[in-house]
Amino acid sequence: MLRKNLLQEDIPYCTDEYPNVYYDGCYVNHYLNSEFANRFTPEFLKLVEETDVPFTGSEGLTAKDHKIDTLKARFFILSKYEVEGTSSTIFKAEGEELDYFDDRNNLLAAKDSDESRYASWWLRTVCLMDESVISAVADDTAVGIVGIYGPMGAYLKGVRPAFCVAADSAVEKNNGMYYLK
C-alpha cells in the first residue's frame, strides 16, 4: 500500500547521525521505522508485514559491481525502478516496476493539508556516479536526481510511505479512501 499524500513534514534523506546515502543506513529508513511507526496502534502494526526491501548495496568499486541487498522493514519509500521502470549503469533495478505509475498522475503527491499544491518526494535509489545524489520525484511528476546536501546543510523533501499487508487483509473503501479492517 502507498500513502496518497506526503507526510506533513519534509525530512532530510541523511543526517549527521544517519549519514549513509545507501537506504539501510539513511535517516528516512530510520525515521519511518521508528518515529513514524510509533504513531500507530499495536493492533494496526500487527497488520503491517515486515517486508524484504531491495536497495542498492554499498559494496563495490564501480557502479556495475554494486549488488542489490535487502533489508526487512515495515515502512519504506519506493525506488526509482518501482515508479519508472528504468535502470542503467548508474541506477540499479530495485524491486519490481509498479503498474500503478503507468498513469503519471499517480506520481503527484501533496501535503495532507493542501491537496492543490504538489511537492517533491524522496526515492530510495542512490546514483552510483555520485553518492551524494539520490533519486526523487519532482512536483511535476519528473523522476530525476537531487543532491542530499547543499551549502546550508541537508535538503528536505517529502516522504510518501509504503507498506505491505497480507494479501487476504480486509480492505474497505469509504469516500475514496481505503481502510484496513
Question: Order of strands side by side in the largest beta sheet?
Answer: 2-14-5
* Unreliable stretches covering 5 or more consecutive residues: none
Shape designation: globular
SSE-based structural type: mainly beta
Kindly state the number of beta strands: 16
Provide the helix percentage.
10-25%
- Cα radius of gyration in angstroms: 16 Å
How much beta, percentage-wise? 25-35%
Largest beta sheet, briefly? 3 strands, antiparallel
What is the element string, with H for helices and E for strands? EHHEEEEHEEEEEEEEEEE
Q: What is the typical, i.e. mean, pLDDT?
A: 90
Distance between the termini: 14 Å
* Oligomer classification: single chain
Number of helices: 3
Q: What does this protein structure show overall?
A:
With 181 residues, the protein is mainly beta. The chain contains 3 helices and 16 strands. The protein has helices spanning 27-36, 42-47, 80-84; strands at residues 11-12, 48-49, 51-56, 68-73, 75-76, 110-111, 114-118, 121-126, 133-137, 143-147, 149-150, 153-154, 156-157, 162-165, 171-174, 177-180. It starts with 10 loop residues before the first strand and ends with a strand. 28% of the residues are buried.
Map the helices and strands.
Elements: E1 11-12, H1 27-36, H2 42-47, E2 48-49, E3 51-56, E4 68-73, E5 75-76, H3 80-84, E6 110-111, E7 114-118, E8 121-126, E9 133-137, E10 143-147, E11 149-150, E12 153-154, E13 156-157, E14 162-165, E15 171-174, E16 177-180
Antiparallel strand pairs: 1-13, 2-14, 3-4, 5-14, 6-7, 8-9, 9-10, 11-12, 15-16
